[in-house]
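Q: My labmate handed me this sequence with no annotations at all. I'd like to see what the chain might look like in three dimensions before we decide whether it's worth expressing. Could you predict it?
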Amino acid sequence: MIVLDASVLIAHLDATNCHHDRAGELLLLAADQAKPLGASPITLAEVLVGPARAGRLDQAAAALDQLGVCPVDLPRDAAMRLASLRTTTTLKLPDCFVLLAADQVADAVATFDDRLADTARSHGLTVWGR
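A: Here is what I predict for the chain of 130 residues:
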């Protein structure tokens, strides 16, 4: 499974985003390789804020469903693990949710964020997008 960062999904949903084409290519490559896609519920909420503001929440949710993005459930000890990730990595909390989800269920993270990509690599994860 590839856990997606908000940067990839936001770029995919917004044709004016500077990473839109790269996001499309990345998602097509994942589909070609039959890689399932996942995201933390916090990441999905982050992605849906813009469409909600624009009155396009239903269309954005449908696009995520069409991509086959599955929510990755938070573990019982999520609060403690997130606090630990936040202090040991200095990543922002939304990025810690990406890393936690990937640490649970994935072998890869897709992101356009350099700091998250570097940290994911240090956790032994493959990085798509960087």
